[in-house]
Amino acid sequence: MSSDIASEAAPAGLSGHAFSSLFQAVTGLRNRHALVAMLGCMFVGVIVGGLLVAMTGTLGMFAGLLATLVWIVAIGTGVNAAGLLQMDHARGISPRSIADALVYGLMCIPKLIALGLIFLAVEIAVFIVIAVLLFVCKIPFLGPLLFVVVFPLSVVVAGVTIVGLFLCMVLSLPAIWQGASITRALAQTFAIVRSRLLEAVLLAIFVGFLCFAVATIIFGVLGFGLVPTLAMSMSIVGFGGFGMESMMAMSQGGAGGAGHAIAGAIGGALLWAVAASLVGQVYLLGLSLVYLRVTEGLDLTASEAALRATFDDARRRTAELGEKARQATHREGSGASAAKGAAVGGAMASGAGVAAAPVHAPAPAYSPPPEFRTTTAAFRPG
Predict the structure, then answer these.
(1) Which of 188-202, 213-227, 324-338 has the lowest mean pLDDT?
(2) Which of 64, 67, 201, 210 has a Cα-to-Cα distance from 194 of 20 to 30 A?
């Protein structure tokens, strides 16, 4: 089913064949395994999330948070599983089972979270540098002159950073689906951005146009069918839409109205989940094709080795700084102890060198008369 895609792979770069080959992303709609995997996860997320939201009155905000978490995990698992199956399709290999794809899709979520945090940290670091430069521009007289250069440079750097990191995050998905580690995924995406940024952006935009065309057809069909169905549902069942006003009106109509409102909301969510899954198959296969094309011919091993060397160097520098800080703390502690010991020893030496002050011995408060002392001495034994 997918050998035709792999056999028509053209050399990397922009060409007429590069764009025409992306039209085969529409064949992602025929990948039943990927569609079932995404639809199943979306159905589970919508149904479980809807039931938890309906229990908000009993469980409070905890139900809403739990519903959000379940929905995110379900959608993430479904997208990764479908993307993995579409990647198998694009590479021309036999697809794995749906169960294996779902398990692997769930395992991909921590990697993607770690990649997202890394890209966010890089973006924050770039913005901190820009903020420092803008603060420097507040210097009188010299600041306005620097701002002439800093402002346009900051615009370009911020724009390239945002677009580049977003593209890195998107192109990291196929790398993770292929089983790459976090380091290798970073090396691949950085190599793409460094050497083939324009090609990757244009091909990704072309895939977006294809998805928009497919979405126009799918959502157009649903829109034309939704209008008469809502009209008949309003007149027969009393369900007239998905807005809050319709929900409130039905809930005031009694338990039956509230039940129809909840059922209609869940059914409508399932309907839009089907539409989103169909459009998603086109995007996932198109993304896989773009990734395979822009990574063709790249020396990914050298990029990964360079990135690992950078990480090792940063780790070594961090360890050296920690060791220097520990040694400085140890020296400060030893110096303080020596100074304290010297002060104590000096105090003791100065105390020994000074003569002891005479002790004042006051006269006793009562002295016996002389007769009593003579009598006492006469009776004292030998």
Answers:
(1) 324-338
(2) 210
Amino acid at residue number 158:
A
Element (H, E) at 189: helix 182-236
**CA within 13 Å, CB half, 301:** 1
- What are the tokens at 62? 């905890």
pTM: 0.67
Residue 12 Rama label (left phi>0; alpha psi -120 to 50; beta): beta
299-351 pLDDT tens trace: 666 666 666 666 666 666 777 777 777 777 766 666 555 555 555 555 555 55
Cβ-based burial of 117 (10 A; exposed 0-12, middle 13-18, buried ≥19): exposed
Question: How distant, in Å, are the alpha carbons of 87, 104, 108 from that of 179?
Answer: 11, 9, 9
Distance separating alpha carbons of residues 126 and 145, to the nearest angstrom: 22
For residues 282 and 210, the answer to whether their CB atoms sit within 8 Å is yes
pLDDT band at 124 (very low <50, low <70, confident <90, very high): very high
In Å, what is the CA distance from 265 to each residue of 53, 236, 243, 256, 262? Answer: 12, 17, 9, 14, 5
- Cβ proximity of 133 and 150 under 8 Å: yes
**Which pair of structure tokens corresponds to residue 185?**
């995924």
- What tokens appear for 148 in the block? 């002439």
8 A C-beta contact, residue 83 and residue 287: yes
Q: Which residue has the tokens 């999330």?
A: 49
Assign 359 to helix, strand or coil.
coil
Which of 132, 96, 89 lies closest to 289, judged by CA? 89
How many other CB atoms are found less than 10 A from the CB of residue 243? 9
